[in-house]
Amino acid sequence: MAAQQSQSIQTLLEAEKEAAKIVQQARQYRVQRLKDARTEALKEIEEYKKAKEAEFKAFEASHAGTTSTAQAAIDQETNVKLEEITSAYTASKDAVIKKLLDRVVLVKPEAHRNLKQAA
C-alpha cells in the first residue's frame, strides 16, 4: 500500500508539473498574442495615419491654387485702388492747400451775430 501511495503521490506531482507547464504555456501564449495585437494595431494606425495624411495633402493641394489665385486678385485690386487714391491726392493737393491758406490768411472782420441783436 505504501508503494501504491508513493506511486499516486508521484503521479499527482507529475500531473501538477504538467499543469504548471500548461499554465506557463498559456501565459506565454497570452503574452505573445498581446504583443502581436499591439504590433498589428500599430501597423493599422500607421496605415490609417498615412492614408489621412495623403488625403490631407491632396485636399491642401487642390485648395492651395484657389487661395493663391484669390490672393493675387486681392493684391491687384489693392494696387489699382492705391493708384486711384494717389492720383486723386496729386490732382487735388494744390486746391486743398489754397483753400486752407485762404481760410487762415484772409480774415474778414465781422461783429458777432449776438452783438447785432443786442444793439
TrEMBL record:
Record keyword DNA-binding present: no
A GO MF label: proton-transporting ATPase activity, rotational mechanism
Main function: Subunit of the V1 complex of vacuolar(H+)-ATPase (V-ATPase), a multisubunit enzyme composed of a peripheral complex (V1) that hydrolyzes ATP and a membrane integral complex (V0) that translocates protons. V-ATPase is responsible for acidifying and maintaining the pH of intracellular compartments and in some cell types, is targeted to the plasma membrane, where it is responsible for acidifying the extracellular environment.
Gene Ontology cellular-component annotations: vacuolar proton-transporting V-type ATPase, V1 domain
Organism, as annotated: Macrolepiota fuliginosa MF-IS2
Subunit note: V-ATPase is a heteromultimeric enzyme made up of two complexes: the ATP-hydrolytic V1 complex and the proton translocation V0 complex.
NCBIfam families assigned: V_ATP_synt_G
Family, as annotated: Belongs to the V-ATPase G subunit family.
Protein name: V-type proton ATPase subunit G
Signal peptide (from-to): none
Pfam families per record: V-ATPase_G (PF03179)
